[in-house]
Amino acid sequence: MKKRRPNFDPVTLEIYRALYTSVAEEMGIALRRTAHSPNIKERRDYSCAVFDAAGRVIAQGDHMPVHLGSMPMAVAAALRETRIEPGDCVALNDPFAGGTHLPDVTLVAGVFETGAKGAGLKGKGERGKGNTRSRAANDAKDAGDAAGSGQGGVVGSGLNLSPFSLSPSPLFYVANRAHHADIGGGSPGSMGMAADVYGEGLRIPPVHLLRGGRVNEDVMRLLLANVRGADERRADFAAQIGSLKTGATRLLEIVARAGAREAASYAAHLVNYSARIMRAAIREIPDGVYEAEDALDDDGVGDAPCVLRVRVEVEGDRARVDFTGSAAQVAGPVNAVEAITVSAVAYVFRCLLGAGEVPASAGLMEPIEVVAPRGTIVNALAPAPVAGGNVETSQRIVDALFKALARALPGRIPAASQGTMNNLTIGGIDARSGREFAYYETVAGGMGARPARDGLSAVHTHMTNSLNTPVEALEYAYPLRVREYAIRANSGGRGKQRGGDGVVREIETLVDARMSLLADRRRRAPYGLAGGDDGRAGRDAVLRVATDGRAHARRIDAKGSWELKAGDRVRIETPGGGGHGAAAAAPARKKNKSAKGK
Prior knowledge:
Layout: H1 10-34, H2 38-41, E1 46-52, E2 57-60, H3 65-68, H4 71-81, E3 89-92, E4 104-111, E5 114-115, E6 121-122, E7 126-127, H5 132-142, E8 164-165, E9 172-179, E10 207-211, E11 214-215, H6 217-224, H7 230-258, H8 260-283, E12 288-296, E13 306-315, E14 318-322, H9 338-353, E15 368-371, H10 389-406, E16 423-430, E17 435-441, H11 471-477, E18 480-488, E19 502-509, E20 513-518, E21 539-545, E22 551-555, E23 559-564, E24 569-573
Parallel strand pairs: 14-15
Antiparallel strand pairs: 1-2, 1-9, 3-4, 3-10, 4-9, 5-8, 6-7, 10-11, 12-13, 13-14, 16-17, 16-20, 18-19, 19-24, 20-23, 21-22, 21-24
């Protein structure tokens, strides 16, 4: 029997994988370099992706896992609820329409083969020969290079300010998601305690931010009137739009070289190839049912733990991940929407592939079914508060799923990492400028020990891939001062392989401010595996300098908001990772015979 030959060239497929991935990566570089907020510019709290004409993801940058796995649902919502034409850009952040939490704003645009009106056309609308396609790329590059910053200004879309479409529908879609340091709501940073999603900030359904390459100023004014630091928000939106321009330009260059048909064909091959790789990885998991349970400390309103249960059924090359039995949605802001749960599952199974060259496309989830019952903490319904579902519950879903898979693959699964993003926001009026400021940061912690290696210390793990804000950048941008930034020694769990240590980060506010903290793993420590010890739980405090000149610490809860006076300090001590394997017993000490009788 002859072996069936593939209907594509493997070398060309690898070239396209690298091309499409490089487009997403370059989009990220453009966004980072042009953003104004330290949260995007320094911490890199953003993600970019490329989608085919059907809205299937074909490539992602090496950005934030919590964004990337959920972005396809946001793009699907944008395509379902709006019509995207040349020069259009749709914005959304609605957690119940493919979003995650309100600060994460997604922009989506179509990539059309466009030209200036009348350019490159012959006869009855025939496509002109010669350099029509390269002209389309040049038009996309040159259109709207100057990003407007004033009210009524034009923000360059990069998608042609006066487009004439040579293709009746988009060849691709490009999308990015950036965490804006404030999107309104009751607390600066939009990450405080709220009774419902309405109290968490401005909820944006899929709406046109640009039409025909020009800013929809009615929408922009509405957005900026409801956020703190409006100038910074406008500048970050402009950076996102410029990032889409970069992606559109590069994709049109690919089409100009190879043609739209080949580019689309190999995009489909990449999706199918990813699906085959994932099916092969699932076949390596022994058939069976694997169950596990973990929990969040609480929801910030009550003291009861929020339980997550997962059941993984593996049969052949398919897997079913069922969260039936998880807690009902709660009053506090730790509810996750379905997009977050799917994103966490996608992340865990992608980790099993163990290869960085696998196309990060829609095919990865093709052999995996996710069951997330509606009305639970893993698929909350509107108008539940969801600010922490994106950052905290996503981490616990990963912890529970890895714990279940450790029963099937004990030699490949790490112990629990810190399991929280330690979300810290501080906002008020900057006395240096008289303007509002909103500082947001997630704080690193310990990585769980791996079966053959220690965990790393002071790193962001699992669903976050961000960095810390450098001290110099933080103190330059905000009326804040970093008093201490250090490894939290011995916070990692002991074991044959030791868990990574957490972090101590102490920040002083130089003005009166409002602070919010949304964190976890303060009661339930990160678990160890195979006999390894748990990591140390985190803890938090506010330090206030008394009249005697000494700083007195007051322990605070991991979820809540507090008013700070100038000179107060917030101290965050993050959890360490769990250990892996039982630690070897220390050898018994031999008695010193010469010491007898002394």
